[in-house]
Amino acid sequence: MASRIEGIVFLIFAVALLEGATAATTYKVGGDAGWIVPVNTTFYEKWAADKKFEVGDSLEFVWTSTHTAMEVTTKADYDTCVKTNGILKQTSPATFPLTKDGTYYFICTVGPHCSLGQKVTIVVGNGNSSSPSPSMPKNHAAFSAVLSTTTIAAANYTPKTLVDRHKKMASRLCFNIGFLIVGLLGLLVHGANAANKCIVGGDLG
What we know:
Elements: H1 2-21, E1 26-28, H2 43-49, E2 58-61, E3 69-72, H3 75-80, E4 86-89, E5 94-97, E6 102-107, E7 119-124, H4 140-155, H5 159-204
Parallel strand pairs: 1-2
Antiparallel strand pairs: 2-5, 3-4, 3-6, 6-7
Helix pairs in contact: 1-4
């Protein structure tokens, strides 16, 4: 039972570490096209449609011509291309972290670019930012599972069972070391016998 619990703990911990290593994704807005005045006003809407944005991800706006990237605060400002309220970045590449669930709005503030379709809406999680508490990272659930499982496993141990457990582990370790030594000695004896045969065969020749 104890070894099974340890195996489960190890498996969940490994999954959590893997998720943590690959948790954050940086999305280049517009893909290969980058941040441009698009040929049609639905270009960025279609680009974002098949993406699953999560807390911890980032958006990277890359352009080579005259553009900016501004995160505006309301949908009304986004719809009407209001350029006075928001976080403005004028140097490419411009990176915006997605720090919580909610809907993010970005526009270009240069000339008529926004009204021509150079704007994008990004939905993170369920798009609801009403909760004031910050969202947890992607791998929070996995680490919570590790903590919970480890706590349950620890609750099943008493000082006596821990001592017995350590004795069993020490016994297994001694057995494995002994088995390894016997195996190595066997290899050495086999090698010595083979060498003797070669020497004897050479003398007979």
